[in-house]
Design goal:
165 residues, mainly alpha, 5 helices, 65% helix
Amino acid sequence: MNGPEWVLLVKVLLLLGVANGTPVIAHRILGQRCAAPLDAGMNFFDGRRLLGRSKTLRGLVLSVIATALAGAIFGLGYESGFLIGLLAMLGDATSSFIKRRLGMTSSSMALGIDQIPESLFPLLAVQSPLGLSVDDIAIVVATFIVLELALSRVLFKLHVRDRPY
């Protein structure tokens, strides 16, 4: 991997961090203020919540805005940042939907289900505009999984996250 490609992958990984970290930080700072649930409290056909209480409109909006701004700051453009933020949140909602169908509680951890959609969906969306290869995407997804698991424990110890996983 040459120098410029490595830098691009780090920037993309940082954008994934901004996208997924913004709702956590917003929850820590704002608590339940303006935390309307994305699923509006609705249940699916199985009687379980559609997404769960931790997926909020506030988290979605702040994530997309923060990631779009970070995309511009990192030189990847607002558009790439917007797509990464939006699709990371779509991936996160997809994970929550799957976990609810499996009977898992809100904010519980499911290795792979939690990390892959929220990193893979946005990477596929920006693959062509950013010139990412399949290998690049695999490297970023794998690195994202490792970093999320490690950072989650650190953030729990710092009282930023409610659960360590």
